[in-house]
Design a protein that fits this description.
Strand content of chain C: 25-35%
CATH superfamily of the largest domain in chain C: FAD/NAD(P)-binding domain
Largest interface: A-C, 58 and 51 residues
CATH superfamily of the largest domain in chain A: FAD/NAD(P)-binding domain
Shape of chain C: globular
Chains: A alpha+beta (496), B alpha+beta (118), C alpha/beta (419)
Distance between the termini of chain A: 61 Å
Oligomer: heterotrimer
Number of strands of chain C: 28
Number of domains of chain A: 3
Number of helices of chain A: 12
Helix content of chain C: 10-25%
CATH architecture of the largest domain in chain A: 3-Layer(bba) Sandwich
Number of helices of chain C: 9
CATH class of the largest domain in chain A: Alpha Beta
CATH topology of the largest domain in chain A: FAD/NAD(P)-binding domain
Largest sheet of chain A: 9 strands, mixed
Largest sheet of chain C: 7 strands, mixed
Strand content of chain A: 15-25%
CATH class of the largest domain in chain C: Alpha Beta
Shape of chain A: globular
Helix content of chain A: 25-40%
Number of strands of chain A: 25
Radius of gyration of chain A: 23 Å
CATH topology of the largest domain in chain C: FAD/NAD(P)-binding domain
Distance between the termini of chain C: 59 Å
CATH architecture of the largest domain in chain C: 3-Layer(bba) Sandwich
Structural class of chain A: alpha+beta
Number of domains of chain C: 3
Chain lengths: 496, 118, 419
């Protein structure tokens, strides 16, 4: 019997797991994907929101602000890239400026300091801000983080402190049982737990509705992003979005934006389209075109347009999609589900979900601790043992790293300068990589200009060496996503 | 009377050749702009040939090595030739230029290694 | 810090030819840095023939052509390092590199030859919408899995782009029992050599669709199909022309991009047209003593031309070190402009330092021209005219010019004139 089963290894589930690992509890995390951070926590804008935007008094507002405050300490402890580079809402008309004032007020109500900047103030700080920029709301506490590194790091910390992770484990039923809950999975496993934490993203409604009298609906809300080459980040030092746009089906998006990413690339996006399939993250030409078309006009407002007068679409190196789990009641659903004692929801965690996640996780853990009154884990280890990426090392650090481990002198991914040492480490770590995609998430190998064209075969080789696999067994992202389908010189021609 | 169409491969022109045959004998070649085109047209219409380049495996190695036929082989035997190449597993080490198969499928062409396999 | 006269980055066809020529010119302080486990570059994985027809008067396979060059390096005992990755080049020609034997090290070079080759355009760069399953792979990466490792990247393939690499892989796939369903080409013409269309597609009845592109990739774990549509003159998909092709692999052969991150680090001026360095007629870049040749300078279609060009560079680098070639100075050069029909022009500057002898202008026609001529104008005067029955983007065009013909001109322009 598990004390706690957490369904979903996204930002909330990972944060809860980490918080719970400070206690003597048997905790299991069930993730239906083949790696942690497989859902909404991955395909987003990577923004840490200031918290001026959510309606005051809502759970979104509360957890946004609480979460935002946690990021410096959390990311320092877990060695996750994070920068408070600020967020700007750019006004290109007087109407927009009204919105800016409104958001400034809202920020005050939420306890989030923001600055209203007129054009003169904007130009003082960003002298090349474009012609039509009228003013802006600037939030210094906004920032950027690497979302999957954050989730992976929290999972690694939880794992080193005793939490067990079950990947490729999709929950198909939850029923009340003696002393708690009985969960069954697609693969035929069974888990019994005193408490269930429902952190299942776009599937949270499915789970909740199996057990609670208060049923809700999660709408998967799709958004696409484009990634631009590192070349452009020199002129993108803060996140710039336009004023939020309301959506017909409820809620609103933060609007399109351009954000620097902690990895040195530039992210553009995102749009918002409501879907029915909770796992469909395919990009669409409609979404990609929407972003490209938007930036063809919006570009002129941005400081970068002084160097690149027109939007350099040839600088795009990739596109990705993600689903936000939009709740039908517009605010987060957090707490014990009515009619289901011990079944606790953290559902509908759409934007500002990534920011709110760490705080939500802490709260979920508090609820568990209230119920189970567990003893503390005296052996709890904060942080994680992680290597500094080679590409970020100084010359001296590189020399030292090579001296300690010659695998550092072997470059695998040329575009992102990822060495063999880091790739082997990514596989050997707790909750380690088991596929090419998982290696990519942990090391950035394959995320650069050539998108794995050069390094993938070597990554496959190393996975084979570390895991005792044949190349035919290596997958892109788990399950049956095999990369290689046969051996050469094996075909028999019928006519022969 | 039979008419066949080919793109000549001898130079970037890529002339579209029309070759007429009577009872299997070439009676005319048109569309070419040089003599080489005519030669190619005749050959291609009566007995098209191709050099086979492909991979081969050694019995005692994991990685394959590359090979080629020493001369072009009849096009209609290409698959049969590849089949024999795949079924043959010589022993490494193999040196570039080694004959790994004599008289492939009775064509008179040998199969030569085009790289070393240590 | 180690010192060397001529440091060559890349041990492929370009790097080796430059090294050998520098040696012939008299240099005895040469070092080649190669990142993989052998010399030879991309030719090591090109097991088909067709290489060397011009240079050696024989049809060789890639490995055989590479072997000819490697033999020269070994015979002359020209130093080279394998498994060596260059991390940085400074404008004063300090190269930082590393390998497992030496760790991290730096070398001060008197001259550097950039010979890093190129990378392939990826699905991400093309922004093809859809899922991100296994089975989306570039032609060169597939070629590597097949020819260097011995694995089939798929069983049922659709190829996007009629570039030579994709065509070559189509044929090789067929010979491995892989089904090649179709080649889809965006433009109304192929960018590949005609002989490849004939011998790789026509021979096996593989359909080739022009003015078409892949507009969606489907499949969760592995590619299950692609959606293809026709495009109009604006290269945008035409609604209503969509069709779905069942496959497990999308092979992308949509162009090569010179790999110039190191060049940029060295402060070398880049050309948006070639995506390679801007050079003068000695193929010297804007940074004195740094030269470029082969695919990193501009994408070639015949390795024979890569070798010839790189030999010129090797000689120039040796002469530079010997004080016989001055620093590049574009402000004191004649600029060469791309006129109508001309793209990817190299070199972009003609040095006043060379008053005698000949030099080559190379470019790619922007479209297919029949019965046309490539013309070189020194200011308003036509100084060279090269007639051709056909000029096509798939074949680099070369014009040999006398320096004397352009000396004193303000600008030189190259254009295509149709008869």
């Amino acid at each position: 019997m598990w004390d706690v089963v957490i369904v979903g290894a996204g930002v909330c589930g990972a944060a809860a797991a980490r918080a719970l690992s400070r206690y003597q509890l048997r905790v299991a995390v069930l993730e239906k994907g083949s790696d942690v951070c497989a859902g909404a926590s991955r395909g987003n804008s990577a923004m840490v929101h200031g918290g001026f935007d959510p309606e005051p008094g809502t759970l979104k507002a509360v957890y946004n602000v609480l979460g935002n405050r946690m990021f410096d300490e959390l990311c320092r402890e877990l060695e996750v890239p994070f920068e408070r580079s600020g967020t700007m809402i750019l006004a290109t008309s007087e109407e927009d400026m009204q919105e800016v004032y409104r958001l400034h007020e809202r920020g005050e109500q939420n306890g989030v300091p923001t600055q209203v900047m007129d054009r003169a103030a904007l130009l003082e700080r960003w002298p090349t801000m474009g012609e039509g920029a009228v003013g802006a709301l600037f939030c210094p506490s906004g920032g950027i983080v690497c979302p999957y590194t954050l989730v992976i790091a929290m999972c690694e910390n939880a794992a080193r402190n005793g939490v067990e992770f079950f990947l490729n484990t999709e929950v198909t039923s939850v029923t009340a049982a003696d002393g708690g809950w009985h969960l069954e999975t697609k693969g035929g496993q069974a888990f019994d737990a005193k408490i269930v934490l429902n952190c299942a993203g776009t599937h949270a409604d499915q789970l909740n509705n199996m057990v609670s009298t208060d049923k809700f609906k999660i709408t998967p809300r799709f958004g696409a992003h484009l990634i631009m080459d590192r070349e452009y980040i020199k002129w993108v030092d803060t996140t710039i979005t336009q004023t939020p746009t309301a959506l017909p089906t409820g809620g609103h998006t933060k609007g399109m934006g351009i954000m620097p990413s902690v990895d040195g690339t530039v992210i553009l996006g995102c749009d918002a389209v409501d879907y029915t399939d909770p796992d469909d993250v395919a990009t669409t030409s409609r979404s990609i075109d929407a972003i490209v078309d938007y930036f063809k006009t919006f570009w002129t407002y941005l400081p970068i347009s002084a160097v690149y007068p027109r939007f350099p679409v040839e600088g795009v190196i990739n596109a990705y999609g993600g689903l936000r789990p939009h709740p039908d009641r517009d605010d987060y659903i957090i707490g014990e589900a009515p009619g289901a004692p011990g079944f606790i929801n953290a559902a509908g965690i759409e934007s500002p979900g990534l920011t709110a996640g760490p705080a939500i996780g802490e709260h979920l853990a508090e609820l568990v601790v209230e119920k189970l009154a567990p003893a503390k884990n005296e052996h709890y280890l904060p942080g994680r043992e992680v290597l500094k990426p080679f590409r970020e090392m100084t010359q001296e650090e590189r020399v030292e790293a090579i001296r300690r481990n010659p695998d550092y002198a072997k470059i695998v991914c040329r575009c992102e300068q990822v060495t063999e040492a880091e790739i082997r480490d990514a596989i050997r770590r707790p909750v380690g990589a088991r596929s090419v995609g998982a290696v990519k998430m942990r090391t950035r190998a394959g995320m650069g200009r050539c998108q794995g064209g050069f390094c993938q075969s070597r990554v496959v080789e190393i996975l084979c060496e570390e895991l005792g696999l044949s190349p035919l067994e290596v997958t892109q992202s788990g399950k049956d996503s095999y990369i290689l389908l046969g051996e050469s010189c094996s075909h028999h021609f019928e006519e022969a | 009377m039979e008419e066949r169409q080919f793109i000549c491969i001898n130079c970037p022109m890529g002339c579209r050749l029309t070759v007429t045959l009577e009872d299997g004998e070439v009676t005319s070649v048109s569309g070419n702009t040089c003599k080489r085109g005519e030669v190619y047209g005749r050959q291609e219409a009566t007995a098209p040939r191709r050099v086979l380049t492909c991979l081969m495996r050694a019995a005692n190695r994991e990685k394959p090595f590359s090979v080629k036929t020493s001369t072009p082989v009849p096009k209609e035997l290409l698959f049969r030739c590849a089949d024999q190449v795949y079924r043959t597993r010589p022993n490494a080490p193999i040196a570039m230029g080694d004959v790994v198969i004599h008289d492939l499928c009775g064509t008179g062409a040998d199969v030569l290694a085009t790289q070393d396999l240590a | 810090m180690k010192e060397v006269d001529i440091l060559i980055i890349g041990g492929g066809s370009a790097g080796m030819a430059a090294a050998a020529a520098a040696y012939e010119q008299g240099s005895r302080s040469i070092l080649i840095l190669e990142r993989s486990d052998r010399l030879g570059g991309i030719l090591c994985q090109c097991i088909h023939n067709g290489f060397g027809l011009h240079r050696y008067k024989e049809e060789l396979t890639g490995p055989e052509y590479a072997r000819r060059n490697v033999d020269v390096i070994l015979e002359r005992q020209i130093p080279y390092m394998l498994h060596t990755f260059v991390l940085d080049i400074t404008p004063d020609k300090v190269v930082t590199a590393m390998n497992p034997q030496e760790g991290l090290f730096q070398i001060q070079a008197k001259a550097i030859v950039l010979a890093m080759g190129c990378r392939e355009r990826s699905r991400g760069a093309l922004m093809i919408p859809g899922t991100r399953p296994a089975g989306v792979i570039t032609a060169g990466a597939a070629q590597r899995y097949l020819n260097l490792e011995g694995y089939l990247p798929g069983k049922k393939v659709v190829i996007l782009g009629s570039g030579d690499i994709g065509l070559i892989m189509a044929r090789q796939f067929v010979m491995e029992g892989i089904e090649v369903k179709e080649v889809v080409e965006l433009m109304p013409f192929s960018s590949g050599l005609t002989r490849n269309i004939s011998q790789c597609l026509n021979d096996f009845n593989i359909p080739l669709s022009f003015s078409s592109t892949v507009i969606e990739i489907k499949g969760r774990s592995r590619v299950s199909s692609v959606v293809v549509a026709k495009v109009g003159p604006d290269r945008k998909p035409i609604p209503g022309t969509e069709r779905e092709i069942e496959c497990d692999t999308l092979l992308i052969s949509a162009g090569l991009i010179p790999e110039n991150e190191l060049s940029k680090a060295a402060g070398v001026q880049m050309s948006p047209s070639t995506k390679g360095a801007v050079v003068d007629d000695n193929l010297q870049t804007s940074v004195p003593g740094i030269f470029a040749c082969g695919n990193v300078l501009h994408v070639h279609d015949l390795v024979d031309n890569v070798s010839a060009e790189s030999e010129d560079v090797g000689r120039s680098a040796a002469r530079y070190v010997a004080g016989q070639l001055p620093d590049s100075d574009f402000s004191n050069c004649i600029p060469v402009r791309e006129g109508s029909g001309v793209g990817g022009l190299v070199p972009q500057f003609i040095s006043h330092a060379n008053a005698e002898g000949t030099f080559k202008l190379m470019f790619r026609p922007r479209s297919i021209y029949r019965n046309a001529a490539a013309c070189v104008y020194a200011d308003g005067t036509c100084v060279a005219r090269k007639k051709a029955m056909v000029l096509t983007p798939g074949e680099m065009c070369e014009i040999l010019l006398d320096h004397a013909a352009v000396q004193g001109a303000e600008t030189v322009t190259v254009k295509i004139e149709e008869n």
